[in-house]
Fold these 3 entries.
Entry 1:
Amino acid sequence: MELEIKIKDASLPEQYLKEVKDLIELGGKRLNHRDDTEVSITFVSDDEIHQINKNYRNKDRVTDVISFAIEDGEDTKILSMLADQGIPRDLGDLFIAPNFVFKRARDLGHSVERELGYTVIHGLLHLSGYDHTTSEQEDEMINLQEEILKSYGLQK
């Protein structure tokens, strides 16, 4: 997968960037995305993700990850046609607040690696069309998420 990473008003130690890249690659393979499929991740401050959450989701609080899927409800025939023409597939953008993720890892007693991995794969699944609005959807998404994290060696 083609991954663009931007770090804006946030700090993310180098060791975690490799994990993010590896997980996107692993998740993309597990989800059968083509090698030229594109994803963008921007790491932002808690204040910035709070503003994004407020402006786009009407939720006045900090969160760990927000996804903006490009293909929401896209016709699969159009996607197939674009693939046949060699046009890369762009799944969309993730915004992640690493300080919030690190705090949440401490609060839940998880390793930072596990919580960051959870956040990245959860966002990738949303960009790939998965959701958790019904219990059936949630079961499918969480099971797939845990399978990917486990195959990377990240467990609770």
Entry 2:
Amino acid sequence: MVTTAAGASAASRGLARRVAGSPWTGYLARRLGGVAAVLAFLVVVTFMIVRWVPGDPARQIVGLTAGEEEVRQVRERLGLTEPLWRQFGSYLGGLAHGDLGASFTTGQPVSSMLAQRLPLTIALATSALVVVLAVAIPLGTAVGVAQQRGRARAATSSFGVGASVLGAMPEYVAGTLLVFVFALTLRWLPVQGGAGFTSMILPALSIAIAPAAVLTRLVRNETATVLSQDYITMAMSKRLSNTRLLLRHVVPNVVTSTLTLGGLILVALLGGTVVAENVFNMPGIGSEIVRAIVKRDYPEVQGIILVLGLVAVLINLIVDVALGLLDPRVLTRRRS
């Protein structure tokens, strides 16, 4: 019995030493510490920023013609007459129990509103990301190969101009052009956005055009850089087929180097949904946050910004873990 217990204790100490010595331990600890710091910052900022915006939520509710006594009663009912530190304490207490509060204007719990609207926003951002990756990686790789080998010079030269123009196009301009061409002129797709496949195409394209152009240029540059390396020349001397050369040596290096930007692009796509949902009148949280800001609905603005920030932080954490799996050298690097 004593021998078994001693063996188990030695095994536990050995496991603890391996965990402590693993590069993943420090890497994940740094990332999780960063996540906690960002979330704490978000909680403070989301609470304060809505109160810095000029305007009175109580006045928005009762209307401009209401008397001061009626406005005062609404302020008291909403808890806005309490000291700021007490309001912040109540906010933190609610967050600790998973309660984001209730809307000033509708009385609906913010968590219920998010449960209804967030899936559509996530579906829109995910659809746009699929478009970005489906266009950027194959097109950028093809242009990079053609550029490196001196083929189709006119096409590769004009590619840079086209990518620059599309990459600078705002979502509302892209959305308006897409509606004019495909909905009003050709009548192929509906003007109204929604959860259906055809209703999702134009909103997703309006968000994806600019990031796809930027990422395509990055993939082109990375492909050209990889193809100029000595080990690629060595691989080509072994008479590897173009397909095998691309799949084995070029695409993995390009995907690794573009993964970080891909995470930032997905975060930007979430921001783009705010514009697209308003252009295409979609019932997601992007359109809801605009209404909440206009109405000075503090709980809804705080809840939406906090959830979007949490999604962005988790995306970056997933990208960091994926980078660690693809390139173990990053585990021992300090974050710049």
Entry 3:
Amino acid sequence: MKKKLIILMLISFSLLSAEMLNYDKVLSNLKGIKYYKNGEYDKAGEAFEDNAIQHPNDPRLQFNQGNAQYKNGNLEEAENSYNMALKNPDFKDKSLAHQNLGNVKFQQKDYKNAIKHYRDALIQNPDNLDARYNYELAARMLQKQQQQQQNQQQQQQNDDKKENEDQQKQQQQQQDQQKKDEEKKDQQQQQKKEENKDQQPQEEQKTEKQKAEEKKKEDAEKILKALLQKEKEEMKKEKQKMNVDKAKEGKYW
């Protein structure tokens, strides 16, 4: 494909060999073509551009400038130069200009407009076999591009569908897990209630036992206190009795 497009560009220069009134313009154009054929596209572009600026009404110079711009990768500038050349009704190489415009659109993968320009090139010159070849090639590329776009759309739809299914599945899993967590929480709460029921009688029994022990301890303390008091009183009585006995005997020591 690239080889075919390069051949088209090499044969599509507009020569000015018949120009007899302006030698500088002819020589500058030949200089640009020489640079171009040597692969020096930057120098070719400068030569064609200077010539086109000095002679803006010559569509052949704009056409050649477009060729150099195309080779330098400046496709939009090349398109503008070809269109400017085509606006001139005296321009004779309209078939080649449309052919090269088709090449620009082909490089931009704009196959619809590439086909349009190749068709216009054939209308201008039905014997332009290169334009016919590129027309058929662009038509196949357009068909392939449309098929790729259709496949991409289908793939995108499949991806979207799978993404939705995955999201729904994830949501369902989250809901199931949430339900399990709630059931587990309810079970734990119920189990805790049952445990509290079992613990309550034990605590009540423990409290009754503590009360009984405390009561028993209080009773024991009361008995002990009463015994102590009784012992004190008996000792007091015994002491008083001893004092009385001593007084009777006349002894005070």
